[in-house]
Design goal:
homodimer, 495 residues, Neurolysin, domain 3, 3-stranded mixed β-sheet
Chain lengths: 495, 495
């Protein structure tokens, strides 16, 4: 047996996972409503078969037969990533994984209904069982460790919990007073530059045009509508979705730019490594840094408004003939200080929403609080950090699908994404002369090339912290993000 | 171990196959062009895993542990179908299957290019190797049997080769003089009732409306455009495609009706058997009888023209204000006696195209002729049976993808489909009072219900010949088709 046997096995695992991912895309975007049952069976078989193969003795023997000293760096990365996943799965009983996956899908179903009916009680019942199972899962993986840390590591194996915690702490300290200042300021920002009436077909064509100009090519992807924007794919074929929001073209356009950022990352990993971890993008925080770099540092910059407005005027003359670049920029960057909903938050208050979820989720998983206490604690923290209190649990503790999905430890990766994107963009501003001039002219290639070179091409060659350090000279750190935020909002709100 | 273990294994096999089928739909309809390589890897892994599981010792032990006397009829059908497939696969070396599948996809690639460039030589080279492999495959399955018969049985395990041959022979004898008569007649049939200019979106909406009225519901399916019309799906979720043909709305509409016929069959198999052979439609000839019943016996009837024309007038007033029902009926049923292409043939000459392929394919697989002789023999038979000779191999022996795909023994199932559809429709005319009145009023439910009851609901409970016999009182036979054809064309051409 040799390394190439190992790679064959790894590729089989990838193919099963990819098959499942594209079936999932189909489910969200194309599938007729009656297809849910057979589709969930198909996906569950794929996941069962993949688990069998990942934990098989055969794969174990192949791994044992390989002398890692004889491998090159790419091959070593493949071994590292695969062994980590395999060792994790060997620790968790297959039955427990099945139980969790079943409970998660039940919990999501109940959550959907409970959120509609503002019925926390019925959600709580399911969630309690799921939390119990997730605690069991954490104990199976690492008995002595803090359970929440174990779950976090599932999502971010190579960005330490301590570093993440320090970053959140720093943001909490610095963003809180800034939010207070903004709430006390008396600005008169334009909020409706992008409002208007847009025909769906035309809106979609406009979104496609912008995505293409950012570097998302037709022959390697698709853009469709779906209920929740998302990205699925690989170096060859990556698909994004956006949504329509009545009467505001940024309702589709900002998700398109965000998802295009994810897609450009997928498409930028070298094709020749396809099927192995080396040929996959790194996980959540880095992936999110790509989407947020394009959405926020590019898409919400004044330069981008200068680029965008003439295009909008050309395609929708009736809606944009009276709009100024300043209007666009202000509308894209206003702080919604009375907003209760994470996914509708601005770049600033967003992270307070995350910190609330991090603090509550941690206590819950670690057993310091129980499910029934969630609504009260939620409302207290909302009041304390954002000065607002939700009137219902639907727009409070039940607003996100993540906990129903069993994704505890996940939320902080969103903030890490913002933080890393600012760190990368700071370096881009050093390496590329006046990137804002390029953006204004619709020349996004220098930025894309920088990301290709410093992030995309690396796939999973480096661990997360190393990857950021090689690209920027520093491990993930909050400062560039805080500087960016303070500069932007001080100017906007005359602080 | 028990029957329920057996069913679990069978369902796993189904899920793998279904996953692959929907990925294939995606590939044909949605996938960006660059996605071919990873998609073919995904599908090949699914097929490899399915083969492993189908031929596993584990499944063998489960099968051996079951006492078939204790099973009900549905369960017995599942055992029969699964054992047949497993025993077949156990006889063929896995390596040979892999080689065939690889050669098939190479051969299709070469065929595409060769057909474009009318270059039979380069196609012949690949085809020769594929034919050799298919002969090997037939020998592995059944050493002493005529190889072509073995391959046919792969497609139609339960409709005997002898019966099929007798049917083709009968058609050849009776259709030949009829074609001569028509060629000598001097008719003045309308040929352009459906010509016009149709906007693609509107054309698609019209197709969807008709498919829905036939009984193809939105929540259980989709209709899209693709290069070649096809159907994929199960009782819950079945998708059809059609194509556009410039300036003739039947270019999309007839394929839609045909594929809707396939879809109604899939959707009519009881959901409760999903995942087992009992919950699958029977194979090609029966499936094709469903599509052809709707396309020909319903869609090309005078009653259907009466139903269709007012709808066309309403949606496309400029194109149809001067059209008569008679024009529609004639245009849908004209005999193209100088047509070289199978897929563009009418209901009559079509079967001569099939007979040519059957006779040549049989000789080729059995080693009575070799690949290099194909063009000459093809042209001779075209001249003899249809009185026309292709000028190029592209519109001659290379027109169909089937042989490049390795589908030898397949073509006759199309004719069987026509023959069985006529047999079923003859019975429908006995059981339903004046079905043409129902069609004229757009009331397709009585016909659909008859098919549901007599064909769809049965899934794979019965073998093919039994299924036809239970539905019509006779095993598959040519007479009803010949009567239908003679009646229709005698009237149209005043013979």
């Amino acid at each position: 047996m040799s390394y190439s046997d190992f790679e064959d096995e790894v590729k089989t695992l990838t193919n099963l996972e990819e098959a499942s991912k594209f079936l999932n895309w189909d489910e969200e975007v194309m599938m007729p409503e009656n297809g849910v049952m057979p589709r969930s069976r198909q996906k569950s078989t794929l996941s069962k078969v993949r688990h069998e193969k990942l934990t098989s003795d055969n794969l174990g023997e192949i791994i044992d037969s390989i002398d890692e000293n004889e491998l090159d760096e790419d091959q070593k990365a493949n071994m590292r990533e695969l062994k980590r996943e395999r060792e994790k799965m060997l620790k968790v009983p297959g039955k427990l994984i099945e139980k969790i996956s079943q409970k998660e899908s039940e919990c999501v179903d109940v959550w959907k209904k409970a959120r509609e009916e503002d019925d926390f009680e019925s959600f709580a019942e399911e969630l309690r069982e799921l939390v119990e199972l997730k605690r069991e899962y954490a104990a199976a993986l690492n008995e002595g460790e803090e359970p929440y840390k174990v779950l976090y590591k599932d999502y971010e194996p190579y960005l330490s919990f301590e570093r993440m915690e320090k970053i959140l702490q720093k943001l909490k300290e610095e963003l809180n007073p800034l939010i207070d200042e903004i709430q006390e300021s008396n600005p008169d920002l334009c909020t409706d530059a992008f409002k208007g009436s847009f025909e769906e077909d035309k809106e979609m064509r406009f979104n496609k045009e912008i995505a293409q100009e950012l570097g998302f090519p037709d022959e390697k992807g698709r853009l469709d509508f779906s209920a929740h924007p998302f990205t699925v794919g690989n170096s060859y074929d990556t698909r994004i979705t956006t949504r329509t929001k009545d009467n505001d073209i940024t309702g589709s356009l900002m998700p398109t730019i965000h998802e295009a950022g994810h897609a450009l990352y997928n498409l930028g990993v070298p094709e020749k490594f396809y099927g192995t971890p080396r040929g996959q993008p790194r996980e959540l925080s880095i992936h999110e840094s790509q989407s947020r770099l394009w959405e926020n540092h590019v898409g919400r910059s004044k330069a981008f408004s200068k680029y965008l407005l003439p295009k909008l005027e050309e395609k929708f003359p009736e809606e944009f003939s009276d709009t100024s670049v300043e209007d666009c920029y202000e509308s894209l960057n206003q702080v919604y200080d009375d907003n209760l909903i994470r996914v509708e938050a601005d770049e600033l208050t967003y992270h307070m929403h995350i910190i609330i979820r991090f603090e509550i989720g941690r206590k819950l998983i670690n057993g310091d609080i129980e499910v029934e206490e969630l609504p009260e604690i939620w409302d207290q923290k909302m009041e304390k950090y954002l000065g607002i209190t939700p009137e219902t649990d639907s727009e409070g503790v039940m607003q996100d699908i993540h906990w129903a999905w069993g994704s505890f430890g996940y939320f902080s990766t969103y903030t890490l994404g913002s933080v890393i994107s600012a760190q990368l963009y700071e370096k881009i501003e050093e390496d590329i002369e006046k990137p804002e001039n390029k953006i204004e002219n619709g020349n996004f290639e220098p930025i894309l090339n920088w990301l290709r070179e410093n992030i995309h091409k690396k796939g999973r060659l480096l661990k997360t912290e190393e990857l950021v350090e090689e690209a920027t000279g520093q491990k993930p750190t909050a400062e560039p993000f805080l500087e960016y935020i303070e500069e932007k909002y001080s100017e906007l709100y005359n602080l």
